[in-house]
Amino acid sequence: MIDKMNEGNTPPKKRRAPRKKKPQGLGDVVEQVTEATGIKKVVKAVVGDDCGCEERKRKLNEAMPILANKRMDERQRIIYETVVIPHNAKTTQLRGEAFAACRTLYNELGLGRFRITGCPGCARKMQSKLRLIYEASCEES
Dihedral through CA 128, CA 123, CA 64, CA 140, nearest 10? Predict the structure, then answer.
């Protein structure tokens, strides 16, 4: 009799937990830690919903992005290969078209806002980050 009652019934589907997106930077990591420890709830209870957390998270993400999550698309890889790599083969200093291409790629990839500066150390950091992202993008293809 029980078999006849269960005929045609399908077992209930298990609900999956919602997927968490990968952290894009330090701000997302800090948010995950404060949520896991309960600090976020306490702060919201004391200060209210507008505690400035989102703005701080955005600024931290821009200042310290997680490069492992960044990838160049096909157009960005072509720009890097045709402009930046040949320029780097000739000289270590970024100038002219290569500097403009690097700055554009840097900003497009959401690594922050890179402005024109005369600082060679800043330019080397920018090149280093772009090279890591380029290499990771090539490995996936």
Answer: -30
